[in-house]
Amino acid sequence: MEPTQANSVAVFGIGADGWESLDPASQQAILAAEVVLGGTRQLELLPSADPASGQERIAWPSPLRDHLAALIDDHSGRSVVALASGDPLVSGIAGTLIDVLGSDRVQVVPGVSSIALARARLGWPADAVEVVTLVGRDPQRILAAVAPGHRLIVLSSDATTPAVVAEVLTGDGYGASTMTVLGDLGTSYETRRSARADAWSGPSAALNLIAIACVGRGNSRTPGLADDAFEHDGQLTRRDARASALARLAPSPGQVLWDVGAGAGSIGIEWMRSHPSTRAIAIEVDAERGMRIRRNARRLGVPGLEVVVGRAPGALAGLAAPDAVFVGGGASRPGVLDAVLAVLRPGGRLVVHAVTHQTESLLVERYTNLGGELIRLQVETVAPIGTFTGWSPGRAIVQWSWQVPQ
Fold this sequence. Notes:
By secondary structure, the chain is of the alpha/beta class. The chain contains eleven helices and 19 strands.
């Protein structure tokens, strides 16, 4: 396959066993290209270029994304190919190229992915496995995926990743999970080693992935984690109210949430736990709570939660446009509701909680003018009354939810 237009690039997936993993047509296309891009390891897998060809071989720049478009455009009018490991669209360079250049300028010739090889070695069907990438990412992300009896395949950054993952699992009560580290998959020197996470030790291959059979007691991804899952100072959207709010915020893959007046960050954290592609921004005026939100996010597997320490509405300026907004505090502050209503796109969702008469009156007024849904939530829990037990009512919450017409 050759690039079909100037400044385009064809991406070839190459196996860990190198040049011989490619079919003859792919080999010919790579040798015929004027420019070959790739990681140092992939470039070293190629046979020596014919000096008469003038072929130029270039390792990826760093930082990659910032220089990628310029790198391709510097070779305008020349045939350009890129090398990637296995399937270039599985946590690989092809996805980044498509993001930067557009799909019309990128062609992909996939090889067999390390994920497919791992599943074949383990006998794990694709529909019974969740894939988590830790390539260039915080290992705490794995905690959003663990669950009793669940199977994970984890893409490692390097040789140190298995030991770090074992430590993270053990610290979260999943030390009994079986970790199988598969190294240099697809080569003649492929390795395999299994042990419990809490007993893991020793080196791993630089090229590896981790298969995990989870054993432990995990937090559900269904909205409504127990209140004690969060570190907090009392400023927390409680479990039942949180579940109600998230049902109306309706997390969807790839969407962005603003959690305004975030407190302990519980709404944004549970939003992000719903799917690995979701994003959330927690806006909190108190710096100490901001640090607490970050700790909660890491411990619950969503270290990518963005925290903005500042007061709304001023702190909302310049943030990524939201698909949904939760206002758990500060709704009565002048300009806050107007600011979030102004940025929500068609189909966007808004949920606001009130615990004071002043904020409740404001929500009644908005409901009267805009419609939506207005409900009052009050949860009673059983508590001791002397030597007996009885119902103890919690503070009532007024919840207004509204969706921008599509």
